[in-house]
Amino acid sequence: MSSVMRSTSPVVRLAALLALGVGCASAPTRPSAQTVLAAQDTAVVSQGLTEAALRFNARVTGPTGAVVERAEYELVSDGQVMKHGSAKLGTPLSGSDGTDVSFEERAAYVQGPEDLARLSAQGGTVLLALRGVLVVRQGDAEEKVPFAASRAVRVPRLPTVVVEELDGARYSSEEVQLNLRLGIRNPNPFPLKLSGLTWQVAVAGKALDSGTLAESDSVDASATGVYPVEVSVTKSSWGPEVKALISRGILPYGVTGELTGPLMRVPYSLSGEVKLNVTR
To answer: DSSP string spanning 204-234?
Structure first.
């Protein structure tokens, strides 16, 4: 080895090797300027009994020429991860002035019928959140910017089934027409989707008729959906002692069934007495 090389400082030789790229792997590159979230929030676009749509909004500042390629995230409800997702964005940044970035996600925010019943009984609010990273690219450099924003919403509440209206029209000493209006009360600030409402009517302990109402229907927010049921109490439907039953002027009745919808099963049992109108 020459005296020149021997006298050269090891630090100088290392700098020369790095400059020539000898024996060193390329280090990962990063954007020349750091990306910053100047503001962020999560808004509730829509809410249902079992699912919600959230929109994440952010103001992003970063180097001009960089692009927010995508968001990698998870939707969280009450501390539980409900869904993982990725949203393509392709939003170019404009430097220190900042650029608005947003995406939406829709997912269930309850885990099943038991969870729905628990939340309904619990009341109050539930915290929904979107959290993850924004992937920013500038040339070959990539940066992942963490984000997390939440929003409290009212917990979903199960509906109730009630007797909205009932009258007994006595047509003869052996025939009464029961006119029953079942109400589905929606206590939520959003429409309630229904699969169906089954019903079975009994008079004085004897089952008379049954059916299904409100199939693939919905009830407006904070409203009551009303569904009519008509049942005839006659000798053929109730039995040979119907005349003695009707002569009392009051009929004991019962209505049982189940209200169903997405992740929802609400059994009900209603009973009472109906005073018969005068003979028509």
So the answer is: TTEEEEEEEE-TT-EE-TT-EEEEEEEEEEE
Pairing of strands 264-275, 250-261: antiparallel
32 CB neighbour count, 10 Å cutoff: 12
Query: Cβ atoms within 10 A of the Cβ of 17, count?
Result: 12
Tokens 């280090």 found at:
27
Q: Whole-model pTM?
A: 0.77
DSSP state of 276: B
pLDDT averaged per 10 residues in sequence order, the chain, 280 residues: 40 36 40 79 95 96 93 95 96 88 95 92 95 95 96 95 95 94 97 97 96 96 97 95 94 97 94 82
Contacts of 115 by beta carbon, 8 Å cutoff, 6+ apart: none
CB 278 within 8 A of CB 173: no
Question: Starting at the edge strand that comes first in sequence, how are the strands of the sheet with 175-185 ordered?
Answer: 160-172, 175-185, 224-234
Instruction: Say which amino acid occupies 31.
Output: P
Q: Distance (Å, rounded) from C-alpha 4 to C-alpha 19?
A: 19
Query: Structure tokens of 49?
Result: 């009994």
Q: What does residue 185 show for φ and ψ, rounded to 5 degrees? A: -95, 120
- H helical segments located in the chain: 3-7, 10-20, 113-122, 235-238, 242-246
Cα 104–chain centre separation: 14
- A 10 A CB-CB count for 93 gives 23
Instruction: Collapse the DSSP code of 52 into the 3-class scheme (helix H, G, I; strand E, B; otherwise coil) and give the result.
Output: strand
Say if residues 274 and 250 touch (Cβ distance below 8 Å): yes
Using only the alpha carbons of the chain, give its radius of gyration: 34
